[in-house]
Amino acid sequence: MKFSKFSTLLSIFLFALLCDFHLISQAEQKGEAEFRMGYTANSMSEVDIKDAAAAIDLWVKEIAFEVGVSAKSYMYNDPDALIKDLQISKLDMGIMRTTDYLNTEHQINADLALGKVKGGKKTVKEVLLVRSDTDYSDIKNLRNKNVAILRGDEFGDVFLSSLLIRRKLSDPKHFFNSLQEKNKPSNVILAVFFKQADACITTDTSLDIMIKLNPQIGDKTKIIASSPDLIPMVSVMRKDYNEINKQKAMHKGLTLNKHPRGQQVLLLFQGERLETLKKSDLDSTRKFMNDFKRLTAEK
């Protein structure tokens, strides 16, 4: 009789244990059954946001196919919201401005993943461009002039302000006659080429692309200042994401340029390929931003 009771209790315990194990197993499978990527709208200043959304949607589907799961992508207007969702495992991968990553790199539950290669390199330089038929050789020559800049170009704004502070000049809004914000990098450069602006802030990679399309741009313009090498945007992957799936996702990103669908993603992203990012890749960007904070504090 005692044995029968013990046997019954043991059976109930084992059944409950199996149920708990089944529920835990289901939860784990559910967590890995979908690849979730988030990206911030402000990290896509160089590309049309619709093109960026299409590119990321394609990229996520490519990763999902490689990993063997379904996939979703989400756009965030608030970088802090994306970082929070990475922290609580609501996202597996995120794309953000490098400055947003640097502001939280010691707390974020994510490792650097991939960076875009454009013009043969992961970095860009912000440059101050003027027409070659002018005698402008320094930013101080541009007082009360018109300057074009890409809307949302954070590093461009920082670079321009840094140049003025170092020369002990006033802030951009008071020093220049106007700041013309453009929606595309090409429009920024063409504003100088067609004499709609006296100068512009653009990147060396955007300028190189425009010169390849129209060599006259190279003949008619000159660079009078440039920034250090910078990485404007990073992707990160959640630290506790399944390691096997993480490696598959990384492999898919690194080989996007090897097949037509991946090439379509890169075309929309205005990139040539993706490469692995290391923390040391951000050293120059980190110093650039720290120097700017020091300059503004000393003003």
Q: What Rg do the Cα atoms give?
A: 25 Å
CATH topology of the largest domain: D-Maltodextrin-Binding Protein, domain 2
CATH architecture of the largest domain: 3-Layer(aba) Sandwich
Fourth-level CATH superfamily of the largest domain: Periplasmic binding protein-like II
Strand order of the largest sheet: 2-1-3-11-4
Distance separating the two termini: 88 Å
Low-confidence spans: pLDDT under 50, at least 5 residues? 1-31
Shape verdict: globular
Keywords for this structure?
12 helices; D-Maltodextrin-Binding Protein, domain 2; single chain; 48% helix; 5-stranded mixed β-sheet; alpha/beta; 299 residues; globular; 12 strands; 2 domains; disordered N terminus
Written overview of the protein:
The protein is an alpha/beta fold and about 300 residues long. About 50% of the residues lie in helices and about 20% in strands. It has helices at about 1-30, 50-65, 80-85, 100, 155-165, 170-175, 185-195, 205-215, 215-220, 245-255, 260-270, 285-299, and strands spanning about 35-40, 70-75, 95, 110, 115, 125-130, 145-150, 180, 200-205, 220-225, 235-240, 275. Helix 2 runs antiparallel to helix 11 (about 260-270) and helix 5 crosses helix 12 (about 285-299). The longest helix has about 30 residues, at about 1-30.
